Amino acid sequence: MTERHVLVTGGAGYIGSHACKALRAAGYLPVTFDNLATGWRDAVKFGPFEEGDLADRTRLDAVFARWRPVAVMHFAAISLVGDAMRDPGSYWRVNVLGALNLIEAALAAECRDFVFSSTCATYGDQDGVVLDEDTPQAPLNAYGKSKMAIEQMLGDFGASHGLNAVIFRYFNVAGADPDGEVGEFHRPETHLIPLMLDAIDGKRPALTVFGTDYPTRDGTCLRDYVHVTDLVDAHVAGLKWLEAGRGSRVFCLGTGRGFTVREVIEQSRAVTNREVPVIWGDRRDGDAVALVSGSERARRDLGWQPGRSDMATMIADAWRWHQSGNYNR
Questions:
Q1: For 52, phi and psi rounded to 5 degrees?
Q2: Residue 292 near residue 257, CB atoms below 8 Å
């Protein structure tokens, strides 16, 4: 049987590297396409690596011609809320134009199955309701707007060129590979749990919490968290959905339960048995009050059952990775 190649953009990053491991375990050969702006070469462990930028159509065409992938799994993007407020143009250039290049290169190579990593940030601030696939989208910043634009592009190319797309909307991803082969590492780091673990471990002076006056149960922002291994399992299931000819579909991924920043801090104290040094700061522009993502459609249609997405397990897996030699670069 011929090996099935899947082009994974952003495969040297946090979620993309975990997706490559899951794809390999499912019998695919993941081909990582990454410019290493935020990804890491040593995270590419489960298939070949092609360095390149989504802005470079010639390079994309060469990679598609070499590997003839059966599908694309698209993670590559810039995603910092603060930067999106200060420099929205970069989000339209990198995320939207990059995705357009990728879609057109895929279609030129007759690759019509596309799994897209979107975000619950496309919903904006919905007053704490559980977000599902039918919730109106009203993004607050250029990051969410750029992702929504890509979703719309995928729909347009589906109608005109037969592109089939599974779109996943999720918010906070946490945890690390339980086997310790890959994990979360960004430079600069912006995600709550690794920042918190850095503060616990003395790698930074303190964790800064942005805003304590939100209308939540303790004044801090509330978010839904999903374990990275559960998340990428859904992406593989989405790929199989497309291979079965079931057509384009949008899925939200989450637990349906939100945690406030204070609650995540308390959970980390319990898991690590260490105190978290905290600086209480002001709100950031563009941050929603509460985002909780339901996933009934994914459970029903994909058979998705998140097995590691309780907060204690996510922090424990992240802490184990954080303490490993792989993390300490």
A1: 175, 170
A2: yes
Q: What is the pLDDT of residue 327?
A: 56
Could you tell me the residue ranges of all domains in the chain? 4-174+225-252, 192-223+256-322
Q: The tokens of 154 are what? A: 């995928």
- With contact defined as beta carbons under 8 Å apart, do 120 and 133 qualify? no
Level-2 CATH architecture, domain 192-223+256-322: Alpha-Beta Complex (3.90)
State the amino acid at position 98 in one-letter form. Answer: G
pTM over 0.85: yes
* Strand order across the beta sheet in which 4-9 lies: 49-51, 28-34, 4-9, 71-74, 113-117, 164-169, 249-252
Contacts of 102 (CB under 8 A, 6+ apart): 9, 54, 60, 72, 74
Q: What is the pLDDT of residues 19-69, one digit of tens each?
A: 999 999 999 999 999 999 988 899 999 999 999 999 999 999 999 999 999
Confidence of residue 141 (pLDDT cuts 50, 70, 90): confident
Distance between CA atoms of residues 252 and 120, nearest Å: 8
Residues with a known catalytic role: 143
Tens digit of each residue's pLDDT (9 = 90 or more) over 179-233: 989 988 767 677 889 889 989 988 889 999 999 999 999 999 999 999 999 999 9
Query: What sign has the CA pseudo-torsion 152, 247, 99, 224?
Result: positive
Task: Look up the CATH superfamily of 4-174+225-252.
Answer: NAD(P)-binding Rossmann-like Domain (3.40.50.720)
